[in-house]
Amino acid sequence: AQTVTQSQPEMSVQEAETVTLSCTYDTSESDYYLFWYKQPPSRQMILVIRQEAYKQQNATENRFSVNFQKAAKSFSLKISDSQLGDAAMYFCAYRSAWDSNYQLIWGAGTKLIIKP
Amino acid sequence: GAVVSQHPSWVICKSGTSVKIECRSLDFQATTMFWYRQFPKQSLMLMATSNEGSKATYEQGVEKDKFLINHASLTLSTLTVTSAHPEDSSFYICSARDTAASYNEQFFGPGTRLTVL
């Protein structure tokens, strides 16, 4: 069974600085998707970024980028120029390309604190 | 992006009563919907997966008779917590899979906070 591990329960960063959130996963599959979701205090889950395992190029969405290391099974999220609105819980998630139900497997989450 | 609504956003009920939570996909058809439970400061725990017109598939440890899921249409799924007890108090989140979206993406509702007295 696949697992997702987020080893940082909490991270803090100064506003405008850069922070990296870690995520590792375990799978025997070669084809899958990885996601970072943001859950702000409103509790609404928002997709931040996704990565397809078959793509070598790291995904980027504005200030958010990932470092995808397939061999190491690592998928970290880098947030550049941190803003107060980035404060939230961040969850890493895995989805098999072969799951007909498209279920997500979730990490435990990292609470990101932005210091003004 | 696609929008998923949940109703109610919060509910308080007495122990022993039943509570129904609705999850609607507002601008897309959702063949598959998911129900999650989230405890404070914890991750999402998948309770069940429901496909339109079929019985829901429950995760191990989730009581089917306590958490009744109905997915009667492509835009509506309901979760009924039967004979609720204080230990059922939690934050319940639904998501819906948009088959027309890139990568069959799941879109999430805003959640429902259930408090059982």
Give a brief outline of the structure.
Chain A has no helices and twelve strands. Chain A is mainly beta and about 120 residues long. The termini of chain B are far apart.
List the helices and strands and how they pair.
The complex is a heterodimer of chains A (116) and B (117).
Chain A: E1 3-5, E2 10-14, E3 19-21, E4 24-26, E5 32-39, E6 46-52, E7 60-61, E8 64-69, E9 74-79, E10 88-96, E11 105-106, E12 110-115
Chain B: E1 4-7, E2 10-13, E3 19-25, E4 30-38, E5 44-51, E6 57-58, E7 67-73, E8 76-81, E9 90-98, E10 106-108, E11 112-116
Parallel strand pairs in B: 2-11
Antiparallel strand pairs in B: 1-3, 3-8, 4-5, 4-9, 5-6, 7-8, 9-10, 9-11
Structure description:
The complex is a heterodimer of chains A (116) and B (117). Chain A has 116 residues and is mostly beta strands. Chain A contains no helices and twelve strands. In chain A, a hairpin with a 4-residue loop joins strand 8 (64-69) and strand 9. The relative contact order of chain A is 0.34. The model of chain A has no long low-confidence stretch (mean pLDDT 96). By secondary structure, chain B is an all-beta fold. Chain B is built from no helices and eleven strands. In chain B, strand 9 and strand 10 form a beta hairpin. The model of chain B has no long low-confidence stretch (mean pLDDT 94). Chains A and B meet through strand 6 of A and strand 4, strand 5 and strand 9 of B.
Features:
heterodimer, A: 116 residues, mainly beta, six-stranded mixed sheet, four-stranded antiparallel sheet, 12 strands, globular, B: 117 residues, seven-stranded mixed sheet, 11 strands
The radius of gyration over CA of chain A amounts to: 14 Å
The average pLDDT score of chain A comes to 96
Uncertain parts of chain B:
none
Tally of DSSP β-strands of chain A: 12
Assign a percent range to the helix content of chain A: under 10%
Largest sheet of chain A: 6 strands, mixed
The global form of chain A is: globular
Q: What's the helix-strand series of chain B?
A: EEEEEEEEEEE
Q: What is the CA-CA span between the terminal residues of chain A?
A: 41 Å
Strand share of the residues of chain B? over 45%
Number of strands of chain B: 11
Q: Quickly count the helices of chain B.
A: 0
